[in-house]
Amino acid sequence: MRTSKIVSITVPSEMLSRAIALSKKENRTIRELVREALRQYERHRWWEKTDAYARARAKTRGIREADVDRVIYGYRREKRAGRKRAPNLCASLCAQSKPSPIPPRPLAASPSEHRCYRLSAPIHTPPR
Q: What pTM was estimated for this model as a whole?
């Protein structure tokens, strides 16, 4: 049974000629080119939503962009000191107790690994 669907789209002739030239240059089919474009679009939209969410959360907590390096350094220092996690960092920034309005990260490395959206670094595993 087929797992993919056939779709027909209309594009301007100039865009089609650029797509054909690009596919020839990269030795790819038009299908591969379109699939890659959709994946890139999904990633871009996910990042826009994540960034907006993180900026809003940081604003409510009084965290400025200039504070990010200090917060990361503090987290890493506490981690090196042998703590399981930095309680103030993850509990206040990540707020695992509330469901996140952010959609799941596309093509995530591991579903069991939680990533703090503000720091793009593993903080802890999600509660079970």
A: 0.53
- CA Rg value for the chain: 20
State how far the alpha carbon of 2 is from the alpha carbons of 5, 6, 17, 31, 36, in Å: 8, 10, 30, 16, 20
Identify the residue with better confidence: 96 or 20: 20
Distances (CA, A) of 79 to 76, 109, 116: 5, 22, 15
Closest residue by Cα to residue 75 from 61, 62, 64, 91: 91
Q: To which residue do tokens 């299908």 refer?
A: 31
Concatenate the DSSP letters of all residues of 81-103 into one string: TT-SS-HHHHHHHT-TTSPPSSP
